[in-house]
Amino acid sequence: MTPMHPAVPWLVPITVMVAPAYAVEYLAVEQAQTVLFAQANTFVPQIVTLSDQQRDDIKERSGVRQRTATQQMWRAQRDGELLGWLVVDEVIGKHEFITYATAISPTGSVLGVEIMSYRETHGDQIRDASWRAEFVGKTLSDPLRLGKDVPNISGATLSCRNVLDGVKRLLVIHDMVLRDG
Amino acid sequence: MQIRSTTLFLVATLAIAPALADENLFGYVKGSETLPEHAYEAYTIITNRTDKSVGDYDAWDTKLELEYGATNRFTVAGGLIGRSIDVNGLIVDGYLPKDEDTGLQFSGVEVNGKYNFLSPALDDFGLSGYWELEYNTIDAHSGQDKDTLSFSSMLIGQKYFLEGQLIWAGNAFLEATHAKRGAIDDLPEDFEWSTDAEVELELGASTGLSYRFAPNWFVGAELLYETEYETEVGQERYSIFAGPTLHYGGATWWASFTWLPQLTGGGEKFEGQDTDLHLIEKTEQELRLKVGYNF
Cβ neighbours of residue A104 under 8 Å, at least 6 residues apart? Predict the structure, then answer.
């Protein structure tokens, strides 16, 4: 009989505990639109294309990279009147991208943030309304620093920081290309 | 042949582990982050050490470890250590007395703690202290009886770049070991095998870079320098190992696989050794697989 490999017994606990992991999708775009702009009756899709110079400027002003040259967003309207902008964005989580939606007013303040998908080991609390409420009313005039004007969540510090930096980056994009409507 | 069987073993292991996760991006270099309060993580760490340029040498170190977040900044852990040493056709005076094939045996226990002073995401630079106490009954080199009690202290640095897509980590450590070998009845003639208690001091530093090239997948490289000082001989050895690491992480499971060959080494050598590496206490090759489960 062939002797058992010396490492095999140490793998038994792994095989016993193995269970498939699934991505968690919380909101579709239409749901995020409804939640963040309940009074809107029209969402006009718009893709903003950014030049290399604009991407450099975004990094300069927000402190983080604009990874893509295009940014998907929707103009939220009620009977033709602009209520604000809804931007769906992705930032780097510990292992996967975090998809989130940010509602920005015509004057450049945050109306709300919704986490659309989160797949990390810890830090589900970033979905808590109380944490997301910390963003409401924030503008580029605020520090937008984790642990200062937006609290950190232990075990999800990188996710918190990247969502916060992502919102700041979206405010910069709004200021550069959307402020005039 | 050794590489082939190890490859088959790893393929079989990964085939039964569907999706994995966490910040153990490296096989040897430690990261500065700690578990959240009341979170658990279970690991299996398997290290294969092979080749001393003469004869056949095949050692397996295995560890089962359970980690717990005592607070958001302080993680404690305990582990069970197993060893298997298979040495054939290699006698090294003072170190490897005879051919031996121990099979997998329980060797000892370990407890450790990590305290996070600075968070790499919150404070821009991560800094943690790590302390470990380990007791073993089997000599990691020869497979003979040897009681060792080691205490190590480590400083861990970590830095995120590109919003966390590129991660650097670095460690510096000091380990003190008190050791006493058991007597062997059938030693070769004139073979030196001291059973007096001895104290060893090991210093080391390591560094690694890991890049996320696709969601869940990280590729990296790590480098490990170690040197040991002993009471009578001063600097007994030094070695530098370096190699690539592949890491996969998901929401619940993660795994890291590292190949770490010895690039350079020095200090004591044995008669008949045909390379300039340090091969008395180290080997030419190391492979490490770590698999973790968060709950």
Answer: A84, A85, A86, A87, A110, A111, A170, A171, A174, A178
